[in-house]
Amino acid sequence: MYKSRRDFIKKAGLGVLGSWVGTSYLASCGDLAKAKGGKGPFAYIGLQLYTLRDLLAQDARTTIETIAKIGYSHVETFGLDLHTDQFWGLTVDDLQKILKDNNLQSYSGHYDLSKYLSKDHQDKESVEKYIEVAHKLGQKYIIAPVTPMFDLNNLKIEDYQYAAEQLNKAGEMAQKAGIKMGYHNHFWEFRSFPNGTKGLDILLAFTEPNLVVFELDIFWAEKSGINPVSYFTKFPGRFPLWHIKDMDRAYTTPVVGEPYDSMPLDSINAKEVRFTEVGTGTIDYVALKDSAEVAGLDYAFVEQDQIYLPNKFESVKKSYDFVQKYLAKL
Questions:
Q1: Per-residue pLDDT tens for 199-238?
Q2: Measured CA distances, 139 to 94, 211, 313, 320 (Å)
Q3: Looking at CB atoms within 10 Å, which of 92, 215, 218, 227 has the fewest?
C-alpha cells in the first residue's frame, strides 16, 4: 500500500506543487509572515520536514521555498544519508544555500541513532558526522528521533539505561561543538515496567541535564494518556523543544497499557492512531502554551506524521495559521 501511494505521489505531486506555488494567494503569504508581530517560539514557529517527506523526495527545493512562503521561520531536518552525505538528493551545501535564500533557519535536526542507542549493535552510526553536518547547518540540537526500532515490544529497563549512557556520551561530543544532544519520544516510552517506571523517566533520570535535552512530542504524550504539564513540572527546563500536532476527535483512546503494550506497532498505528491539523483536534494547545516557560521551551515545530488532505501544503498552512492566531503572543 505504501509503495503504490508513494508512486502515485511521485507522478501527481509535481502538478500539485506547481499549482499551489503558483497561486497569488500563496505568493502573498510571505509578505503576511514578514508583517506579523510577536516574539517567542510560537510566533516564530518551525516545521519538522518529515511532515512533507514525499514532496521533498520529488522536489526538495520547491518544497522548502513553499514552506517559507507559508510563513514558517525555521525547519527541523531529518533523513541524512550517511553514505552520500545528502538530504533528499541535496548536498549539505545545497541545503544550506536553499535555506539561506529563503530566510529559513534550522536550529534542530533528527539524526538516526537507532544502532548507536542499541546495546545489541556494534556497527554504530557516526555521531561525529552528525555533529559536523549539524554545525554546518547552524543547528543547536541533534535529536535522536526514536529508540532502537528493532524490537520495540521487548525493550527492558536496561535498554533504556544503556540508551541514556549513550546519549550522555554523544552529549559530551556535541558539547565541544556548542551543540546539545536530545531525544524525541513516541508512545512506547510511556509504557510502565513492573516497578511502575516508564522508559522516558529512565532516560530523564540517567541523562545529564547539561548534556541531554528532550523534545516532547505532545501528540504522543497525550495519546499515551499523559498530561504533558506533569513532565514539565517534574522535570523543569528539560524540554526546550516541542512537536505540536493534533489528535483526530474520533481516535482518542490511549494506546498505552493492556492490550496495547503487547500489540505489534503497525497494528496499533493502523487501528488507533489518526492525526489532524493543529487546532482541529482534541489537544488544548491554548492551555499548554502557558507551560512553555517551565518546560524551558526554545523552539516549537508543527509536525504531522500522516496528512489526509489532498494538498499537503494546505495542511501545514492550516496548522501554521492556527498557531499564529491562537498561540503566538501578538
A1: 999 999 999 999 999 999 999 999 999 999 999 999 999 9
A2: 16, 15, 25, 22
A3: 227
Please state, for a pLDDT cut of 90, what percent of the chain lies above it.
82
Determine contact, residues 144/183, Cβ cutoff 8 Å: yes
327: Cα separation from own chain's centroid: 18
| Whole-number pLDDT of residue 13 | 47
Prior bond of 209 cis (ω within 30°)? no
Q: Contact at 8 Å (CB) between 279 and 246?
A: yes
CATH number reported for the structural domain that contains residue 127 in this entry = 3.20.20.150
Distance CA 308, CA 233 (A): 34
DSSP β-ladder status, 141-144 and 180-184? parallel
Helices (H), the chain: 2-21, 24-27, 29-35, 53-70, 92-101, 127-137, 157-175, 199-206, 218-223, 228-234, 265-272, 285-288, 292-295, 312-322
Domain that holds residue 224: 2-327
3-state helix, strand, coil split of the chain in percent (to 5) is: 50, 15, 35
CB 157 within 8 A of CB 125: no
Contacts of 303 (CB under 8 A, 6+ apart): 47, 48, 50, 51, 76, 217, 243, 244, 245
Total domains in the fold of the chain: 1
Q: Return the pLDDT at 30.
A: 45
Q: What is the CA radius of gyration of the chain?
A: 19
Residues 6+ apart with CB under 8 A from 260: 254, 268, 272
Query: Cα torsion for 245, 248, 249, 252, to the nearest 10°?
Result: -80
According to DSSP, residue 123 is labeled S
Is the confidence at residue 253, as pLDDT, over 90? yes
Grid coordinates 505504501 are at which residue? 2
